[in-house]
Amino acid sequence: MFEEIGTTTDGDLIINVGPQHPATHGVLHLVITLNGETIRKVEPHLGYIHRSIEKMCESLTYRQFIYVTSRMDYLSSHINNHACAMCVEKGLQIEVPERAKVIRILLDELTRIASHELWWGAMAMDLGAFTPFFHAFRERESINDIMEETCGARLTMNFIVPGGLMADIHPNFQKRVKDFIRLYKSKFEEYNEMVTGNVIFRNRMEGVGYLSKEDAISFGCTGPTARGSGVSCDVRKWFPYEGYEKITFDEIIETGGDSLARYMVRVREMNQSIRIIEQLIDAIPEGEYQAKTKAVLKLPKGEFYSRVETARGEFGVYIVSEGGTTPYRIKFRSPGFSNLSALDQMARGSKLGDLVAMMGTLDLVIPDIDR
Amino acid sequence: MWSLAKITNSIHEALNNQFSAGWALFFEMLMAGIAVISLFAILGLVLVLMERKVSAWMQIRLGPNRVGPKGILQSFADTLKLLVKEGLTPGGADKFLFNFAPVLAIIVAMLLMAPIAFAKDFQLWNLNIGMLYVSAISSVSVISILMAGWASNNKYSLMGAMRSGAQIVSYELSAGLAILSVVVLTGSLSLKDIILSQQNGWWIFKGHLPVLIAFVLFMIAVTAETNRAPFDLAEAESELTAGFHTEYSGMKFALFFLAEYVNVFIVCCIGATLFLGGWMPFHIGNWQQFNHIMDYIPSSIWFMGKTFFLIFLIMWFRWTFPRLRIDQLLTLEWKYLLPIGMINLLVVAAMAIGGWHF
Predict the structure, then answer these.
(1) DSSP state for residue A290 in the 8-state scheme
(2) Domain containing B45: what range?
(3) Predicted confidence band at B339 (pLDDT cuts at 50, 70, 90)?
(4) B contacts of A133 (beta carbons < 8 Å)
(5) Which residues of B make CB contacts under 8 Å with A?
(6) Domain termination residue (choose one: B55, B84, B113)
(7) How far away is chain B from the Cα of A293, in angstroms, using its nearest Cα?
(8) Within this chain, do residues B175 and B52 fall inside the same structural domain, yes or no?
């Protein structure tokens, strides 16, 4: 009976946000119980774009399966590839050349900025301001151009292979990255004026979607979501890879725990990424871009795990090998899935309009949640 | 001086010579009606194109530039598309109310056109209670939104309509108080008298700070009343997909769309009339040469220039600010705008009694 009317026995209204809805940035389905405008409960329903990537990887060789991982978190595709390549390298004990390591970090950080730029625009759009989206895309576009020149692709890069890189960087790479840094620095103030300092924006974000430090840890949140609640969890600091330990940069931690804190973490993180790029762009060592590897890779029997910090949080790759050319089992630990689980906790008791803002600050990429 | 009244008078005479007085009046009303409807259609096309061009300019894009030179025919193409689209009525909807709501929205917008003085001696209906009429009729528009939201049988629509109801009813008060402050200074509700009272200076210049405050209040209130961003909670794309018109398609949607833009035009007309002197040209004190040159610009261009400047302001708001939340929206009105408006009205009343304005 009440199925038809769409209300619970308490008179609460049940609405389905998604799977097709402008706020969910993809095919996420949220079943929301509302009391007037106040949220009682949020239930995420997943599985609309499940492609069983983990199962597919079991029938692909160690060189092939990396390409599939670009399609998970497509905004951090480069960093995903990085994690997979590192896991295979760990298993085969391949020593990656210094040049490849530095270029990998540079591309990782560029990807992180590109991802945060898109998030920043989408965040403002969730709050009803359309213009910042286009301004963010202007800067993101120049990163995409750099990627296109060097990697040959703009979104799903597939540039990192076990042992190093697919090819050497384009001769223009350094010059264009420097141009980008100049562009970014000139526009960053504009970002702050347009969105961060806007009084309506601040009122919409402050004190909304509170997530305590304990909750952030118990939900397994990572990345900017957890750092906004005061949890120190940057993989680049705690488990440095590819020489992050030699670079000086700050782990951004905000203790607010609200939407504004998560927003500020991401905005400030972009500056740290710029800082990392500035340190490395003139210090790319000469040498090989790829280590000599066998034509057919066979991981020894055992279990291998590697983790990286993507734009959304900690991304882990777990490979179980039986000694063959394909993995016996692969498990990906994606940041979006755990971060989404905290949404219900954040949203209870707040207004429907704020739910959109909270989802924005979680920076959800649905193919990352539904693998 | 050349005047539009000459044309209308000659038409009036010609009709009266040809037909009896009753028929002449009928034909005149028919012509006026057709004029309003055509203005309506043209306004819709122009404003939609203007919005797209303004937003493109602010968003570092080009905007429509394919259909016709510089894309000026884009609106025609869009209208054509909307006309040939199927106008669906959802299964669970209340058919009569669902189909009547967009028509009501457009009727309200058309009625509001009547008392506006578009140029010197060019007014459809010089009503002695013009401002009261405008305030009264414009509050009917909320009924069409509530009707659409309720009849759609859709939860998003219902929520959008409820938000809109709370919003329009609240902001009507502030808009009313802002209008009253000029009415108090003028001592008349007729739009013609209000414009004539600004012969030697627009109210925004000679009304000191209180009228400036009233102008700001008016602009905020009418932005909210017309459901434009940052107060577009009734539509709130990212929350409620399209709010009260989620279920509408084809021409029924287009009517809502048109009504929104024409409402923006009308409130800007009212704003220009009240605060910026309507069709009165811009004069500087006793500088005869300058004033003379200003007088040469036709009054209709003065009026449209001011109106489109205000429309541009409202579009600028939309493409700059994020949206408010429903509780913040109501807090802004009841805790800030309404008390400020009331005190401001008292100050203006004191000013009018004391004759402290220029």
Answers:
(1) B
(2) 1-84
(3) very high
(4) 59
(5) 55, 58-61, 155-156, 159, 163, 229-230, 232-233, 236-239, 241, 319-328
(6) B84
(7) 48
(8) no
Beta-carbon contacts of residue B101 (< 8 Å; ≥ 6 apart): B144, B145, B147, B148, B151
Place of tokens 């097709």: A20
- Which ipTM value was assigned to this complex? 0.80
- Residues B78 and B110 grouped into a single domain: no
pTM of the predicted model as reported, rounded to 2 decimal places: 0.85
Question: Which of B84, B112, B131 is the endpoint of a domain?
Answer: B84
Which residue does chain A place closest to B59, by CA atoms? A131
Mean pLDDT of B303-316: 90
Indicate whether A9 pLDDT > 80. no
* CA–CA–CA angle A35, A39, A42 (5° rounding): 125
Q: How many domains does chain B have?
A: 2
Interface probe, candidates A15, A130, A140, chain B, greatest B C-beta count within 10 A: A130
Cβ–Cβ below 8 Å for A134 and B232: no
pLDDT band at A199 (very low <50, low <70, confident <90, very high): confident
CA distance A110 to chain B (A): 23
> Which of B55, B58, B323 lies at the smallest CB-CB distance from A127?
B323
Terminal CA-CA length for chain B:
27
Residue B268 shares a structural domain with residue B317: yes
Residue in B with minimal Cα distance to A23: B238
Q: Over chain A, what is the mean pLDDT?
A: 86
Give the residues across from A329 on adjacent strands: A320
| Shared-domain flag, residues B78 and B104 | no
Instruction: Give contacts of B55 with chain A, Cβ < 8 Å.
Output: 130-131
A21 shares contact with chain B (CB less than 8 Å): yes
CA distances in angstroms from A275 to A146, A176, A278, B236, listed in the order given: 18, 16, 5, 38
Distance from B63 to chain A by nearest Cα, in Å? 13
- Label residue A5 by pLDDT band (50, 70, 90): very low
- Tell me which chain B residues have a C-beta less than 8 angstroms from the C-beta of A26: none
Rounded CA-CA distance A360/A201 in Å is 13
Distance from B88 to chain A by nearest Cα, in Å?
20
Cβ atoms B54, B312 nearer than 8 A: yes
Distance of residue B330 Cα from the nearest chain A Cα, in angstroms: 13
8 Å CB contact of B238 and A124: no
Please check whether residues B120 and B243 belong to one and the same domain. yes
On chain A, the residues whose CB falls within 8 A of the CB of B241 are: 21-22
Q: pLDDT class for B343, splitting at 50, 70, 90?
A: very high
Same-domain status, B101 and B239: yes
For residue range A206-245, list pLDDT tens digits in order: 888 888 889 889 998 898 989 988 888 888 888 888 888 8
Interchain proximity A22–B59, CB inside 8 Å: no
* Domain match, B76 and B97 both: no
Q: For chain A, what are the domain ranges? A: 53-369
Asked if residue B66 and residue B43 are part of one domain, the reply reads yes
Helix (H) or strand (E) holding A342: none
Q: What is the CATH number of domain A53-369?
A: 1.10.645.10
Nearest alpha-carbon partner for B352 in B219, B216, B221, B203:
B203
Q: In this structure, are residues B276 and B202 in contact, taking their beta carbons and an 8 Å threshold? A: yes
A203:B328 CB<8 A: yes
